[in-house]
Design goal:
Elements (H helix, E strand, L loop, with lengths): L2 H4 L15 H4 L22 H10 L14 E2 L11 H7 L10 H14 L3 E5 L2 H12 L5 E4 L4 H9 L3 E4 L20 H8 L9 E5 L12 H14 L2 E5 L3 H11 L8 H10 L3 E5 L10 E5 L2 H14 L10 H14 L2 H20 L12 E5 H4 L9 H13 L1 E2 L1 E3 L1 H4 L15 E5 L7 H16 L7 E5 L10 E4 L3
Helix pairs in contact: 3-16, 4-13, 5-13, 6-7, 6-12, 10-11, 14-18, 16-18
The protein binds ligand P70.
The site of ligand P70 has 16 residues, from helix 6 and helix 7.
């Protein structure tokens, strides 16, 4: 560029395509985040040789990397969110009394107002609540139907003596199906478990909204209404994992007839009204770094859970959280259900998804609420599932760019407790999970280009061999070695 041009002359280069804003690229006006940034945390990228060593030291498992060796961290949206100034101010008002902290009552009021349940039992995070409900309600030999397994949820059900049965619609297992509510329960599959006295073995139906392992896919309001009616006919309770329900509500607002004019908060409350209670990992929707709860309408479950909580978590008015953490959750619940926040949240995930799908990179469609899921089978059709294609892809992405993602395939699915064999799920995915209010659009561009680079280098990539396998939730701690040519 000449000095004259630098002085401000209008330069129009006919050969160069015109730059366009994000909105213009999709033929609409751009949206922007409903906040500005007050505090920043530096990022650092180590070089390729350093990443090679770090990955080897981590046994090719992204859970075992040090966060200091990661550039853009898309391992999870759990506990990795940025809190608001209001939440940080709330932390200073923590009442750290052992019993009856005022922050607990704020939390209880927020749950009652926005989710509509009568009783609230706080827990340190989601799996604490899963433990309580599983121990309180499941007997050996019971069956718990649900819309696709989640790792910790299913393990707690199994440890209580139950067996999880997947009753999600078939479309959920097809990464290319464009069904708008791929999280829905298949009513025929569910009823088949209830008939001929089967309902007596079902302590509750376990519904999740959105469905994490299916790609962050939503459940429709019509579906929860129908599931409720079916449960009523057979006298079965319905409990909900509300971990990412605010995101689910956004999809109902966008896609379901009659909901375009309703707020995220209204949709959330209506959704919960069809269920008997819920558990949550507040580390997602609620924009905090730690926390969770179990809530319910029935007194019998409340009594059992508020007794069990003192054994496993802490007193029933703190459940493993500090007072200040409960305050941050109470405020986070309100912020989570704000329409402008949710538009920006889903908008950012969708922006990354649209880039990748425009470039014909294999991802799960439609794009879900919290993450982009890469279809590892279509990245590496030459790598057998027993050689862990998704684990391999997550490792390659880190090597290329320092971006950390998470395997959601055969390693996550674990082994069948009866046969001891690997469970081979239909979905063999890598999750690029977007923390809330943390990364910018420029980060999304960097991520998109990295995924493309890994795709372009896909030939010649071989799989991995598992060399260490822990007993529970093996994906967290398993170690691997590359299969050499
Ligand atoms: C994730 C996290 C946690 C989670 C969840 C749903 C729908 C319950 C929980 C448990 C963390 C995670 C957990 C297991 C494997 C990988 C990652 N999901 N229900 O990254 O809550 O973590 O607070 O105990 O998504 O998706 P918590």
């Amino acid at each position: 560029m000449s000095a004259e041009q630098l002085d401000g002359a209008q330069v129009v280069d006919e050969a160069r395509p015109m730059h366009r804003t994000m909105g213009q690229q999709s033929g609409r006006r751009s949206w922007a985040e409903p906040w500005k940034i007050k505090m920043v945390e530096p990022l650092r990228m180590i070089d390729r040789a350093g990443r090679d060593v770090a990955l080897r030291d981590a046994g090719y498992n992204t859970f075992l990397l040090r966060s200091d060796d990661v550039y853009i961290d898309l391992l999870t949206d759990s506990g990795t969110n940025a809190m608001s100034d209001r939440q940080w101010a709330g932390m200073m008002l923590g009442d750290e009394a052992y019993a009856g902290s005022r922050n607990f009552y704020h939390l209880e009021a927020a749950v009652r107002k926005h989710y509509g349940y009568r009783h609230v039992v706080p827990t340190h995070q989601g799996r604490g609540a899963e433990h309580l409900i599983s121990q309180a309600l499941i007997k050996p030999g019971d069956i718990i139907p649900g819309n696709m397994y989640f790792t910790t949820t299913r393990l707690h059900q199994e440890l209580a003596g139950g067996a999880f049965v997947d009753v999600i619609i078939d479309e959920a297992h097809d990464p290319a199906s464009l069904h708008p509510f791929k999280g829905n329960i298949d009513l025929a599959k569910l009823e088949a478990l209830f008939v001929d006295g089967g309902a007596a073995k079902v302590p509750y139906v376990c519904l999740a909204a959105t469905v994490n392992m299916a790609g962050g896919q939503p459940v429709s309001m019509a579906n929860v209404r129908d599931v409720r009616a079916l449960c009523n006919r057979y006298g079965v309770r319905l409990y909900l994992d509300v971990t990412r329900l605010a995101e689910n509500a956004w999809f109902i607002q966008e896609r379901e007839e009659g909901y375009a004019g309703k707020s995220i908060a209204e949709i959330t409350l209506e959704f919960c009204s069809h269920t008997d209670g819920a558990w949550v990992s507040s580390k997602k929707d609620h924009l905090v770094n730690i926390g969770g709860w179990l809530a319910m309408n029935h007194d019998d479950l409340f009594q059992k859970a508020s007794n069990l909580v003192v054994v496993y978590e802490g007193l029933h008015t703190y459940g493993g959280m500090a007072g200040r953490d409960m305050e941050a959750v109470a405020i986070g619940i309100e912020e989570a259900l704000d329409d402008a926040h949710m538009n920006a949240r889903i908008g950012q995930v969708r922006y990354l998804g649209e880039l990748l799908s425009d470039w014909h990179l294999p991802i799960v469609l439609p794009v879900g609420g919290h993450a982009i899921f890469l279809d590892a089978r279509r990245f590496y059709p030459h790598v057998a599932q027993s050689c862990f294609p998704a684990q391999t892809l997550a490792a390659q992405l880190y090597l290329d760019s320092g971006i950390r993602a998470m395997e959601r395939g055969v390693v996550s699915a674990g082994r069948d407790p009866q046969t001891g064999d690997h469970r081979y799920p239909k979905l063999e995915l890598v999750r690029l999970t977007i923390p809330r209010r943390v990364y910018t659009q420029a980060h999304m561009d960097v991520v998109a280009e990295a995924v493309k680079a890994v795709y372009d280098q896909r030939e010649g990539v071989r799989g991995l061999r598992m060399v260490y396998e822990p007993e529970y939730l093996r994906f967290f701690q398993a170690r691997f070695e590359p299969i050499e040519g």
